[in-house]
Protein: Cytochrome b5 heme-binding domain-containing protein
Amino acid sequence: IVIFEGSVYDCTNFKITHPGGPKYIDDNVGKDITQLFYDNDHSKIALRLLNETKIGILKGSEHANIDSKKVKDQSMMKEIEHEEWRKLIDPAEGTIYQVFTKLDKDAYMNFVNDPKHLTRPNDIHRMFKTPFLDFFSRTPWYHIACFWTPVMFYKLWQGSYELSVVPLVLSFILGLITWTFIEYSLHRFIFHMEIYIPDNRLLRTIHYIFHGVHHAFPMDRDRLVFPIAAAIPIYFIVIKLLSLVYPEVMVNTVMAGVVGMYMC
Structure:
């Protein structure tokens, strides 16, 4: 429970997804966080998320004499305004199909560029309505380390048969730099260029699968990283592309660096 501008907020369910970590909320339980909130330059979106956890008005504050019905009506209007997207998209019914069938370009732009935090009881976000398919769309961060770390060391092991120590190290570093360039290019020229996507529902849906979902539901901890099942074919494509750019003896080690930087 925290206090903000004379109102009381229950942040219990939100603190585990708080971008700054739960410690900042735990350290201020029962305290007035108004000044702290503004000192840390929180965005309007953060203010909206905070509003969703409001449970009352602090007695004795300058807000205490506000008509309770008026406050309730205002809160309801804010919820309607902030969750207008729910009229089109039900997050529990598979968002991919709904993006494909229900959203035109303008609606899609509004949907992905309006970050959502599901705070209602039993709220859940499914990309696929079918539980089996939806399972493969979820990737906790530690799955990435568990799966790709052995791959990185395997490629280094292969490279050790082709290069001596110094070229091996330099090739690995080159791989780190290569992934930095790849990631920047993907975000700069593909993922964040949705405004230039033609008015085509298939292209919009592809964009949503690859990156739009991350913007639409940034607090979804199971979708902060790319699903392993989808990344495997891309892995082999990247190896092929690297073989067109670098000498064959360097490809394995450069790929090890690419994988290592990807995990970072």
Q: What stands out?
A: Confidence is low (pLDDT under 50) at residues 63-81. Strands lie at 2-4, 7-9, 54-57. Residues 136-263 form one domain. The chain has two domains: 2-82, 136-263.
